[in-house]
Amino acid sequence: QVQLVESGGGLVQAGGSLRLSCAASGSIFSISTMGWYRQAPGKQRELVASITTGGITNYADSVKGRFTISRDNAKNTVYLQMNSLKPEDTAVYYCNLALRLTTNYTYWGQGTQVTVSS
After folding, report:
1. Core vs surface per residue 66-80: b (16+ CB within 10 A) or e
2. What is the spatial distance between Cα 75 and Cα 7, in angstroms, rounded to a whole number?
3. In the predicted model, what is the mean pLDDT of residues 7-24?
4. Which pLDDT tens digit goes with each residue over 49-61?
5. How confident is the model at residue 26 (pLDDT cuts 50, 70, 90)?
6. Which of 24, 73, 87, 107 is 20 to 30 Å from 5 at the Cα level?
7. What is the Cβ-side half-sphere exposure of residue 109, based on CA atoms within 13 angstroms?
């Protein structure tokens, strides 16, 4: 069983920065794709950024150039550095682990609130 624990959310003014962390338990972190998703009130959950085992990253157009995803396999941790935050970045941010073998596995964290004030 995998548990994902996010931290680092909070309240920040527009233009500010936050760094989210997601620590994973278990032994499959290093062979899994990790992602950050977010869900704003009244909206569907959307992918913010992802990073493969080989370090290939993917970003939503809305965060390109402002957010950076990274991973530390030795610490079983994935990070999301968020710079130049905007009020529209306000959402609950969720960490996701995805592993595709003969069976697909996906796990979610409990979420961390990010609020950007104007």
Report:
1. ebbbebeeeebbbbb
2. 15
3. 98
4. 999 999 999 999 9
5. confident
6. 87
7. 27
